[in-house]
Amino acid sequence: MDIRILLGKTIRNYRISLGYSQEQCADMIGIDRTYLGGVERGERNISIVNLHKISLGMGIPMSEMFKKIEDQIQKQQIGYNTEEKWVHE
Predict the structure, then answer these.
(1) Core-most of 6, 17, 62, 82, by most CB within 10 Å?
(2) CA–CA separation, 54 vs 58, rounded Å?
(3) Cα(73)–Cα(65) distance, integer angstroms
(4) What are the pLDDT digits (tens) for 12-26?
């Protein structure tokens, strides 16, 4: 799976688990809602600066986000189902 999609799903799952809409989260972080939506769908090649903004705004360390992504990549490589569900999509 494309790393941008994995990152987007990770960000979306964190946002939803925190109880924020896209609009609330984007306003809190200081980015455009449509940009956040594009990131969550894996359509954006997000910069490290914007990833850091999202991380700080959500109170989630970037290392934790990367760990979730790395776990998904490892599951994919050994043939597990990579569609981890934190919340209902």
Answers:
(1) 6
(2) 6
(3) 13
(4) 999 999 999 999 999
CA–CA dist 71, 20 (Å, integer): 24
Q: CA 67 to CA 71: how far, in whole Å?
A: 6
Residues 44 and 39: their CA atoms lie apart, in Å, by 5
* 3-state secondary structure (DSSP) of residue 8: helix
Which CATH architecture does the domain made up of 3-77 adopt? Orthogonal Bundle (1.10)
pLDDT tens, 27-52? 999 999 999 999 999 999 999 999 99
Confidence tier at 77 by pLDDT (50, 70, 90): confident
Q: What is the pTM of this model?
A: 0.82
**Letter for the amino acid at 12?**
R
CB of 34 closer than 8 Å to CB of 25: no
